[in-house]
Amino acid sequence: MNNVLEKVIDSLVSSVIKMPEIRSVGINIGSPAAAASGDGVDIYVFCDSIPCMEDRYAAMCGHGLRNIRPNAFKGDAANGCGTRDSAAYDSATVNVTYFVSQEIAAFVDTVAKGERFAEENGVWPTARLAAIRSLRVIHDREGFLAGLKQKLDVYPQPLAGKILDRYKKVIGGGEELALAASSGDVIFYHSALDAALEAFLQVIFVMNGQYFPGRRAASLCMEDFKLKPDRCGARLVRVVGLGASAASLADSYKLWRELARELSALCGEG
């Protein structure tokens, strides 16, 4: 983030925290998850209750922001979603998302216990945990955000256990992927490969003590992983590329099996 944008964000946050409902504010810049979302800034605001739209809009005015859009997105709090206001500054998107503190704390507890981790309507519950864990605390009345981040600092064993129990034995893709590879049907193969890839990503993130942020950010995150097959990212891309042609499905499957065996060995299943 350049110096000018940083001053804009500081000014914006100063206005946001004047609203009496606000408990904590964190900013997500520079993490792989943030980088994957494009040239932007994500500001998380934790509140006793969501301020009214008029107050939130007023907080975004007067900082050089343009295209201010209150309620750009409003998701289900039970799924860890908040109310997002969006604006632009030069080429950067600035998102300010408001969460009710009690609701997000309950969501985090549910995911940490391993009660929900599978994709829900295109969103991975662990992605919210990844974002919260990477937040830089800007304002923290009563230490709410610091406590939430501390809870997520060490990967919860109940969550890790549930994910590994579900995925580590199916990394290779099983009979369906083998059948798809031999069928010559590219669409069938990619459907089966997608399920195997989901298992692979879930396992490798748990092994490295990182919350799965969703596929958009996965490759960037994996670059820094210590536990992974050699040249993991490049080989995964190669698997997908070879799988685009019926003539090379067998080569794609062979490379996938090699990757799966190496990851299984790393997690004690080889």
The dominant shape is: elongated
Order of helices and strands: HEHEHEEEHHEHHHHHHH
Work out the radius of gyration.
21 Å
Main sheet specs: 6 strands, mixed
Q: What is the strand content? A: 15-25%
Strand order of the largest sheet: 3-4-5-2-1-6
Number of domains: 2
Count of alpha/pi helices: 12
Q: Which class of the largest domain in CATH terms?
A: Alpha Beta
Number of strands: 6
CATH topology of the largest domain: Beta Polymerase, domain 2
Q: Would you tell me the overall average pLDDT?
A: 91
CATH superfamily of the largest domain: Beta Polymerase, domain 2
- End-to-end gap: 44 Å
Which structural class best describes the helix and strand composition?
alpha+beta
